[in-house]
Amino acid sequence: MSSEAPNGIWKTVQMVVTVKAYPAMSNKYGESVCVAGVRTDTETPEFIRLFPVGYRDLPSSSQFKKYQHVSLRAKKGSTDRRPESWQPDLGSLVLGDTIDTSRKWRERWELLRDLAGEGTTCEIRSRAAAVGQNSKSLALIKPADISGVSISENPDFDERTAAAAQASAAPDLFETEKEVLKAAPYKLRYDYRCQHRSCKGHSQSLIDWEVGVAGLKWRDGKAGDVRSQLERKFYEEMCSREKDVHFFIGNQHQNPGSFMVLGVFWPPVGSRPEDSLF
């Protein structure tokens, strides 16, 4: 089944969500989330990006999880030419089953095995910088080594974004309102080398929803040093030698050569389907 659709034409797509970034504020979209995943209605697996997604505006029954099957209508936009980008119709969203980590992550591996390691960060970033938005903008790369995670305080929203956050949380025509979006208290950056033979290293922000939620939870709970807890979770645990670590990376719409880590895929070593006969 073809994944192509002319600009402006709605099409029903089926996918598994693998990435959900922490909400961002803008004057154009208000509070929105970048969501990405893997198409399951195409002949071969391919990445898809949904934007904008007003995740906290969705009813609780429609707030999907990572690795959940979803179906919805979407269309190609006219301004974001990145091949994976689609504009969603969230009113058409239908949720399906969630792929858990039982059987040593086997089902998640079966979803991602054909996409894992398709190119290196150096190759993908270089091509995107040269070609622009028409180049590959989502990938699942395998780091050669991860030297650490840098953690710094995240400045509060500036005046403009703080005002947008207040406006986004205000009651709508149906008198519904939500809590004002809080800025993630810390920024995390992974320092790593990709598999390219001449890689000199990358330092890329991790923008996963879980980073913001964890930072707020641990800060508000006052349970020890938050920086140490973040490092323990997102580096020592998720990037340990016992994990077959991969990074979901994606670039910025206005700056195609600038990539970030959107999320981490961290199954146990030896969990790939081909590693077992059973």
The Rg value, from CA coordinates, equals: 19 Å
**Strands side by side in the biggest sheet:** 1-3-4-6-5
How would you sum up the major sheet?
5 strands, mixed, barrel
Tell me the helix content. 10-25%
Please explain how this structure is put together.
- The protein is α+β, with helices and mostly antiparallel strands and 278 residues long.
- The protein has 2 domains: 92 residues, Nucleic acid-binding proteins (OB fold (Dihydrolipoamide Acetyltransferase, E2P)), CATH 2.40.50; 172 residues.
- It contains 5 helices and 12 strands.
- The chain has a 5-stranded mixed β-barrel. Strands 7-11-12 form a 3-stranded antiparallel sheet. Strands 8-9-10 form a 3-stranded antiparallel sheet, with helices on one face.
- Strand 2 and strand 3 form a beta hairpin.
- The longest helix is centred in the C-terminal third of the chain and has 13 residues.
- The protein is globular.
- The two termini are 31 Å apart.
